[in-house]
Design brief:
Length: 251
């Protein structure tokens, strides 16, 4: 028995990193997944790999800043697998620059992907979840959505803080319909997003000093939490925050 048996999930940013890992692990737990991303070649490879192992996966081109793409992605889930139970708003971008060095265009871009993307995904998924009798929306925020960052990532921090509270409004507005919504707050996770930091020995050693567990997290560390929130095991949990950060924000 899988923990997600019979569930249909849509995961944004599913072509690589945490989203791809969640896709593979969701399928192992019995779900069918629709993976959406702008990296079409990589996304199709993940789809092919899951199918080759006997799993149900469909890749769709999804730019999370475009409402039409979201509508099509939700429609694909319903057409291919009959319904939509779970949405993981995982797609995101990061750049590091101090406030005075951040251009208006940079600000607008990160807000569009990390915040508008979550809003549009939620907006488009809710009718399908209502049709399915309820659902679970999981928004990938960050420890940067809980505390400020000294390293010059104020715009990113603003987006992840917005995701945290958008999650709570979604939760309270849709609780009576059985649509749950929670945020996940990972610490540093070894993916392409922070490759530059991981590959810079001096920078990484400095970062490690602020990590109580003394190691970077893996995509699997986060995916296990996301599976819990996607499953019925978390039925009484909504509007909540799951922190998976090796103790970073505990001190
Ligand atoms: P990643 O860069 O490997 O994955 C992000 C994915 O989002 C990529 O596949 C990318 O193509 C996709 N994406 C970017 N813009 C998009 C758009 N407009 N439309 C659709 N897809 C788009 O990094 P990751 O670590 O897997 O990131 C996943 C999530 O976790 C992000 O929201 C990120 O902010 C968050 N997060 C990451 C870390 C970390 O240290 N890696 C820590 C905390 C939170």
């Amino acid at each position: 028995m899988g923990r997600l048996d019979g569930k249909v999930a849509l995961i944004s940013g599913g072509a690589r990193g945490q989203g791809a890992t969640e896709g593979r692990m969701f399928v192992r737990e019995g779900a069918a997944v629709v993976l959406g991303d702008v990296l079409d070649d990589q996304g199709k490879k993940v789809e092919a790999e899951i199918r080759a192992n006997g799993g149900k996966a469909t890749y769709v081109h999804l730019d999370v800043t475009r409402e039409a793409d979201w509508r099509a992605a939700v429609a694909t889930a319903v057409q291919a697998y009959g319904k939509l139970n779970v949405l993981v708003n995982n797609a995101g971008i990061l750049f590091r620059s101090k406030i005075e060095e951040t251009s208006e265009a940079d600000w607008d871009r990160i807000m569009a992907v990390n915040v508008k993307g979550v809003f549009l995904g939620t907006k488009c998924a809710i009718p399908a979840m209502r049709q399915a009798g309820g659902g679970s929306i999981i928004n990938i925020s960050s420890t940067a959505g809980l505390v400020g960052a000294p390293g010059g990532t104020a715009a990113y921090t603003a987006t992840k803080g917005a995701v945290r509270l958008f999650t709570k409004s979604t939760a309270v507005q849709h609780a009576k319909e059985g649509i749950r919504c929670n945020s996940v707050h990972p610490g540093p996770i070894a993916t392409d997003m922070i490759k530059d930091v991981l590959e810079n020995k001096a920078q990484w050693e400095q970062r490690l000093r602020r990590l109580p567990m003394g190691r970077v997290g893996t995509p699997e560390d986060v995916a296990y939490g996301v599976i819990y929130l996607a499953s019925d095991e978390s039925s009484y949990m909504t509007g909540s925050e799951l922190v998976i950060d090796g103790g970073t924000t505990a001190e």
